[in-house]
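hey all, quick one before standup. I had two proteins in the batch that finished overnight and I want to keep them in one place so we stop losing track of which output belongs to which input. First protein below, input sequence then structure tokens straight from the run.
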Amino acid sequence: MEPDKHKKPYGERVPTTPAWLLTFVLLVTLVASGCETGGAKGQESTVGDGEDPPVSRTVGSVGFAETLIDWHWAVETETARCMAERGFEYEPYVPQPMIDGIRALYGENRIEVKPDVDDYWAPLLPMESSPGSLNQEEEILAMAHRTGFNIFFEPESLRPSPADDGDDNPNAATVAALGSEEAAEYHRAMQGFTVEDLDSANQPTEEQLENSCSQIGRNRAGPEPLPPTQLDAVDIEKLNTLGDEVHRLVNTDPRLDAAEAERVACLADQGVPPDPYGYVLSLLRSELERVTGDPRGTIEGQGTEPGMAEAFGVERLRELQQEELVAAIAGNECAMARTQVERELITEYEQRILAENPDFAALLDHDQ
């Protein structure tokens, strides 16, 4: 199959819960009692041995926030069991900031269907792919200024900070104690691949991702709970068909082709290839081949700045980090005009589709 020419090589974040679904959110009722605080240790999972079919969770008396938190703990428990089956130690861990964020988001008696802020944006219809909001893009760009694509930089999420003192991921020490080869196998067991396995031409296969313990944990825990919605009365198949049609119209629109050409030209003006992320990965491959003789080789302290400084040399690492910053910043800046066009096209075609389907327009509370 020919790759989608509109697939964004500069990367984007994909939320776990589809953004379009938030337009259906109605009420969430929470019980004030029974809410524990905690981070590194969760409740016992009630999930079976993995052989039984997953069961969808529903919002009960503990409220949706606690239902969702319980599900995350169930995923972690099942992930730990999968890792143990493969000979690795893994302690279930849900970061306290995630728990706090869930409670903050769903901890009120009502949830606004659409936040009354200028930077909010999400498609009304479910789509195969769509850009984030301008605010999200600005956050990613700000991160690119600090750590690029997190290839020659350690991700900020893995760096210790004062806020982490009482809620450290217990698995960080486990991975740090492993040799480079064993650490690579650990990551392959957990997520199906390591960053060294990938480049612009080699991405994770569906089989690799499905066989990862992180995905197996999700499968065993069952579907992620969704907020109370009107979806029971919705023709989901038709809803998806409408979203697919919007996606097709957007991605065959000449205006998006023109915006993509401008993105590539913008990068060329700054000496950056069309696929900035793949380019930086190719630099990593070259360095690994230089020091190990194998472009997919491993080094001590793989993925850490001290490890790369020891293997590549401090000055060479600084040069590579600078190249990564240039590529990441340009990749994100040059993409912003394109994604703005894409958002406008999605809105335009959604309005057309919903005008032809007033029943769905009424469901989405969309004025025609």
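OK second protein, same deal, sequence then tokens:
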Amino acid sequence: MSDPNYAQEPKPSTSSEPVSASQQISAPAPKTSATKDSIPSAAEILQPSKPSLTGADDKVLSVAITTYLNTIYDEFDRQLTRTLTHLAEPPPAKEPEIVARLMGMLVESLTNLAVNLVGGGLVNLAATAGGANLGAAVRSAVQAVSKPAGQAVGVAFVKQSVPGSARCVAPETKQRLPEEPGGKSTLDEFGARQQRQLSSRKADANVIVALITSTPNLDHRRLTDLAVQLQSIEAESDDGSRFAQQVTIGWLNFCSAISLGEKKTVAEPDLLGANEPGGLASAGIKGVEQWRGGHDGFVDVSIAFPDQIHGLEGIKLASMRAQTSAGAIRILRTLESPFLGTPIYRRVWLGQGPSPLGWDPALVLSPDGSVNLDMDNPILAAVGRMQLTDIDQTRSIDDDDKEIVELEQRGDSLSTSIDRARLVSLRSKRASKRVERSRYAALGGSMLISWLARFSMEGLT
């Protein structure tokens, strides 16, 4: 008989015994429908979010890589087509034989910028994902595809140049653009070439992906990383707009390059006479055309000076105008970049008054950031000298220069050795003055460039 002072453990119930109301039992787990949960709704299909690639197998990752890769290239093509409608045809080139090569260099540069987004990931995948399992045959095939189209995977372009900024053309590469029936424009030719290049690189990249992912025992983690990387790039809506901006910058620089003409060497300044004593005054006829001429793609900035020059006191930004189409100007404004950081040609004029005769070009900033100074510009020299100077004094012709002109006009008719010696002496004196002026102009140019750092392209008209 049991002791009533001690509770007894409940007996396990059977199917034939009733269950006590006070007895605790485990509730059955709710039934789930695996089929229902695995089928997405119509809304999820029509408006899906970015799928997670975590846990995806190699086959799914390969499909994801190819899909996102194609989408990225297709967006580049759409942005190119749209941007071309906003660009303007340049005037006839002064040196037609360099146009085809400069256009080829522009297309090459823009293609690098576009495919570099995906290139690094593909190279990394080719180099590491397969490891020892990437067989010799597959490796050779990847290299065969990569060599003629190395740009597609970013191999050959560690350092990228500004699109369209090149002006040195090897003699053996000079050729005119082909004559097309119906008079195909330069802009149309550029658009066709750029689209062909993007299409070719897209095909090459797809072949590389197919060759690599066909290798057994790939590094799954690296394959996942590449798929996630491309998914992220595809999701960034501004990638396409950035490409449109680069196309615009490249086209403006191309137009400027064919207007300025060919450079003989890379070390040569972009404008004749720049950064040397004598500056524009000693640049010759072609130099004057480069400094003062109208060039498609240039942004011209005018800085107004007061009657009395003392450093940069009282100067004002009078205007900022681009010599290009209204559509290109709108695209440049979207850069929201500082004036000094925008990689196009920017020419700075100094002076005052409504007449063009009161203004002179003082410096030109090149797309690559180099500075071209007219080191004989009197206003620049007055700025660097930091002494109160009447602006009219900067416009007056030196008496010695007047005498030099008079003697040079007489030429061979100089009757005496005294006149000839006088001319030699005056030229030597002028050279010394120019060296001194160039030192002050260099300082004034540096001060002016620092002052320009406060402005952006938003004020462009």
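Flagging for whoever picks this up: Residues 286 and 403 are 25 Å apart (CA to CA). The radius of gyration is 35 Å.
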